[in-house]
What does this fold into?
Amino acid sequence: GLNVFGAPGLLTLPSARMLEPGTIVFSAATTDPYLHGTFGIQLAEPLYIGVRQSGQISSLRSKADKLAPGIDARLRLFPETAYTPEVSLGGVSLLGHKRLAGEYLAFSKRYERLAVTAGLGWGRFGSRGNIPNPLGFLSDHFDGERNDDDPEEGNGADDWFTGEEIGLFGGVEYELPFAPQLHVLTDCATSRSIFCR
It folds into this structure.
């Protein structure tokens, strides 16, 4: 299924999954206090790109008073095999508004009707860090404090995968045996909600 950002995922969090190449999606979703509209395309088997407009609202009937556009992307690093999970690297608002910006490394594995996802998150996905940023040993750039002080400032490559600490997330999806088209999903992050700011 698609998450609230219009990309393959759980409910509010990403997975490592991809769509069929050439698939185009239009989606709309709301999670207090945001309303999201996304146009996404699976450009190639390992690459998904989405263009999203998010608006902060006080109710579904109100006009958005703060807009947070962004370009989201996901790149598959390794496909799933019988013994290893699918692994993807991606981000929300990689280019665009900092309000919802965050990057992730996700691992997804299917066991018959059960699909499990776990991941590491930076930015909004790691806003209450649990572990030190594992990229800190590469450069002080990654280990430095993430510059989210001014969310009106655009997000860019200098912000990707930065921050002293990162968060963990995960979730499960279960295909009901009596109705294979119906799935039960749940997800959880050890960070504050990516929708709060």
Observations:
- The two ends are 26 Å apart (CA to CA).
- The CA atoms of residues 141 and 158 lie 8 Å apart.
- Confidence is low (pLDDT under 50) at residues 192-197.
- The chain is about 0% helix and 50% strand.
